[in-house]
Task: structure prediction
Amino acid sequence: MVAGAMSVDTVTVKKVASLARIAIDDAAAERLVPELNNILGWIEQLGEVDTSGVAPMTAVIPNTLRLRDDVVNADPLTGGGIRDAVLANAPQAEHGFFTVPKVIE
Amino acid sequence: MTDLTDLGIRDIRDGVRTGTFSAREVATAFNDAVSRAKPLNAFLVETPDHALAAADAADAARAAGEELKPLAGVPIGMKDLFCTKGVTTTAASHILEGFKPQYESTVSQKLWDAGAGMLGKLNMDQFAMGSSNETSAFGNVISPWRSNDGSTAPLAPGGSSGGSSSAVAARLCPGATGTDTGGSIRQPAAFTGISGIKPTYGRCSRWGTIAFASSLDQAGPMARDVRDCAIMLEAMSGFDAKDATSLDLPVPQWEQSLNANMAGKRVGIPREYRVDNMPEEIEALWQQGIAWMKDAGAEIVEVSLPHTKYALPAYYIIAPAEASSNLARYDGVRYGLRDLPEGANLQEMYAATRAAGFGDEVKRRILIGTYVLSAGFYDAYFTQASKVRTLIARDFEKAWESCDVLLTPTAPSAAFALGEKSADPLAMYLNDVFTVPSSLAGLPAMSVPGGLDRKGLPLGLQVIGKALDEQGVLNAALALEERAGFAARPQAWW
Amino acid sequence: MADATAPYRIKGATGDWEVVIGLEVHAQVTSNAKLFSGAATAFGAEPNTQVSLIDAAMPGMLPVPNRECIRQAVRTGMAIDAQINKWSRFDRKNYFYADLPQGYQISQLYHPLVGEGSIEIEDGETVKTIGVERIHVEQDAGKLMHDQHPTRSYVDLNRSGVALMEIVSRPDMRSPSEAGAYLRKLRAILRYVGSCDGNMEEGSMRADVNVSVRRPGDEFGTRTETKNVNSVRFVMAAIEHEANRQVDVLESGGKIVQETRLFNADTGTTRSMRSKEDAHDYRYFPDPDLLPLELDDAFLEECRASLPELPDAKRKRYEAAGITPYNADVLTAEVETARWFDALLEAGAAPVAASNWVAGELFGALNRIGKDITESPVTPGQAAELLALVADGTLSGSLAKQVFEVMLETGDAPGKIVEERGLKQTSDTGAIEAVIAEVLAKNPNQLEQYRAGKVALFGFFVGQTMKAMGGKANPGVVNELLKKALG
Ligand SMILES: [Mg+2]
Ligand SMILES: [Zn+2]
Result:
């Protein structure tokens, strides 16, 4: 990391907000610029650390991935066949589907 | 008879077992306390019937001569990050307003299975992002504590488990669940003069707990003392096949093995935790803690954790990065808030929904997380932070060669006033400086009250242990607790 | 093998162009439950009935991987001689779409389960090796439906979370027919292994088609990716159209834009998907809900031991047994045919005769009655018995055809049919000699001509004898006795 090399402007903030699907107006973007730069400037000190030959952490506690048996609905909490529960909190549902504004592909 | 709400978990459990009082009396007393404590804003939802039902089950079991469950008759508070079946769960965010999970989180289910009842859902920092409980969409939680200088300025209960800390300190519940991603159990416990333990990553299942940063999130108990934490942690812990990161290990009998004798134990004092501008009172408390440890028979050794300084910046890359992805599911399609402006298409609906639903701090962290993962920045930020995380974990490994537990302050200050740091995100983040390193390494760590500052506000001491050595942490904390004799409590003003 | 055919070229106005093709095939892994949840994977269920809380990305839900999906991907990798990575991990690919409940797809970018392998294809006379860069395991998305409502799209999450293998080839193909051969071969391998049913109509296999053009020998040109093409024919058509379009663009002075395109099966053309400005910033990072996937030797050994004989090996074995290359090809193209044929060999049939009979008689008959080999009314055991009756002279070729027709209709065993209908071929010399005497007596003219030297009339006498015996005489015995009788 090149220290101090990264800083954001309103264009970048808006681009990032758009990637994150959060609508922001110009005023909010402008307000965020110094805030984010302050934080980003601070986290950039990580660039000082010599990490050559260091592997990124992949498991916090030494542990390997367990695999599940290929059984349908073995546990009702992780199985299907629960459409009512799946749709229970939907803002809008019809005929067993979730619905969204029409998408043109 | 003493006020039942003055009793902790152990005393309630034992009292119900021996018939000193009924579980219903206990539940009623706490239900009343909860309903009278609105000014604290600690509860988002009150569930008196849930508490009463569990109490009646305990009383019925006792009447039938059955053996009582480990937490029979004990009513608790549930942080609103845990999904509770049929009971509104929001993570204190508008984006989940009205969300009624159709499932019960593993941790809450285990508590109910152990006989506990629920007094209600506790307020918190929105999506567990915050250190003062000022980011809740449903208002700040107020600490029951007030400074002794006559000021009535509302104080922060700490965060993100601020509803939990406030409620336990105010005697609204004898214990509460918390979650800790970078200090969210320990820092609020320290701010409110209670105890709280974050166990080893993987001890408590994350299934059904709303995710903030998956590689860091751990549930744990917050209660009045070390023993109560041990009792509650036993009920919350255990392997869960539904969580791929859950540890497949038996749950130790922590309560039964509690032992405050530190003879033969080495307590490490990490030199890098002596940070710039640390208040004298914190330094003094730390020295006091060291003296208590010696008194308990421990040998004190100075250790070095050289990468401590980089823990916070690494955390503020990793946690927001994971959060930016974990929170992508709140999109207005399957549950929660939907904001569909006239004529908006799908992507515009997402942007409007998330703009209206997330609070400022959540948005800030999502933006940081999105930025550090975006094309061209990933290696410089995320990969580098993950490597630094490896180095931080190695620091601890190295320290364990010369000590059994570490002793540090929990937070760099006592509770501050609400609003004092909310304008400066970075100043707020620095509050987690002592709690974050052990979170990054997945280690068990606990805060216990050590004393009061000049203004009469609680200060906490932190014990950090080796992976899976919750017993060592609890024992050291008990040694401190016995010597601190912390008896201060907030005077009810609410 | 010699390259008999000229390389495929697009003749542009300014000269010849070479086409460069790479395929990313998404193959649905055969499993009962989804990759990270216990919901069922069966095709065609009512909307949202095969959706777990995990697949709907409810708050706090967590993925736990299905061992069988990992196993099938490993076996597939082994079948193409690929490197199997004992240490791999899952990453999140982040983007927002209504068919993606989590807001990310769990996939493998940085450390895929399967590394480099290869697939040998035959395109006409040419044999060619196509490199496979990697196979990774990932989740499928749900499905959007746009025709049910004037202003809304409907979301069905039944497919959400179903396991896919993404099989990424190297850009080693140079013509639509090579791409077609690759896809057919890959499909055959997957079906042999049993890791994917290869059902393209149900979407079990879809290809993303990467196409670029260049002057022969030049550097690679800019490529486009045509998404989700779901038949071999369509893939070939998409390449053809896309390559020609690119040549047109380049020859008229334009530039190829690296973009995602869609294939329209009705028109056989591709068109640009309206570009989403940030569609390419997926912010991949390791999924923190999942630990690294570490495979042990016992697991890998079981995967290897459970692999069946694969098409290339099987074809070689057939050819070594004397079966013609053409028949060997036909018999190994579909796993069901190969299984049926192997059962026939196991029941004792002689390879060459059996291969001719299956490729000729059986295929012809099945074609006629509109059934595939798994629905054949004749079992391999019955067929072996029929072939044995021919081999030991009990049935002549024409009798065997008659018996086979009855077998198809009744499903009866050939021995029973021969017995009941008296179709047995006779080698009884007494009976045949009696008939020959009759034939000679009835045809004095021909007999005279034969004896006068017109030996070609021998065949006439054979025919008459066979006819008089209703086809049931052993032709060899008839020949022998006729020669004797005719002196
Ligand atoms: Mg692709
Ligand atoms: Zn893919």
Summary: Residues 378-399 of chain B form the longest helix (22 residues). Chain B touches chain C at residues 82-83, 89, 91, 96, 99, 101-103, 105, 206-211, 213-215, 241-245, 321-322, 324-325, 327-329, 331, 333-335, 346-347, 350, 370, 373-375, 378, 382 (CB under 8 Å). Chain B has a mean pLDDT of 97.
